[in-house]
Design goal:
Blueprint (H helix, E strand, L loop, with lengths): L5 H11 L12 E7 L4 E5 L12 H11 L5 E8 L9 H10 L4 E5 L4 E5 H4 L13
Parallel strand pairs: 3-4
Antiparallel strand pairs: 1-2, 1-3, 4-5
The structure holds tetrahydrodeoxyuridine.
Protein name: Cytidine deaminase
GO molecular function: cytidine deaminase activity; identical protein binding; zinc ion binding
Family: Belongs to the cytidine and deoxycytidylate deaminase family.
């Protein structure tokens, strides 16, 4: 039994797209992260004229949440404007894994959802425990 409301989270991810700054790709992505207390923090992709500085919606949501003092998360929903499922990129998988390794990742195409465990999306992950061995 999920400890969050999937429909509400998916809707929040979809709504978050309206603040996307996707001037270059026109690929607008929204993400909504939910804490274990049910609080939802949203993000959208922010593109730069120096393309490589672009930040994905998932990392915007996560960094917003962390810097607002939120620590414990249950799930993230991701919605893009192309009507298809938008799996998180490798960089986002890593950063999410660093701070929320046990979350569910919910992809929506606007009609249907697909839910994964982040751990299944980033097998054999590099993790914090490697660093304490130095
Ligand atoms: N993007 C995201 O925001 N999240 C993803 O999961 C994949 C890609 C953004 C980055 C860039 O602004 C645009 O989508 C095209 O790559």
């Amino acid at each position: 039994m999920a400890e969050y409301d999937t429909n509400k989270l998916v809707e929040a991810a979809k709504n978050a797209r309206k603040f996307s700054k996707a001037h270059y790709s026109n690929f607008r992505v929204g993400a909504a992260l939910v804490t274990k207390n049910g609080e939802i923090i949203t993000g959208a992709n922010v593109e730069s004229s120096s393309y490589s500085l672009t930040i994905c919606a998932e990392r915007v949501a996560l960094t917003k949440a962390l810097t607002e003092g939120k620590e414990s998360f249950s799930a993230i929903a991701i919605s893009a404007n192309d009507g298809d499922f938008c799996p998180p990129c490798g960089a986002c998988r890593q950063l999410l894994f660093d701070y929320a390794p046990n979350i569910d990742v919910i992809l929506t195409n606007g009609q249907e959802n697909k839910t994964y465990k982040l751990k299944d999306l980033l097998p054999v992950a590099f993790e914090e425990s490697k660093l304490s061995k130095r």
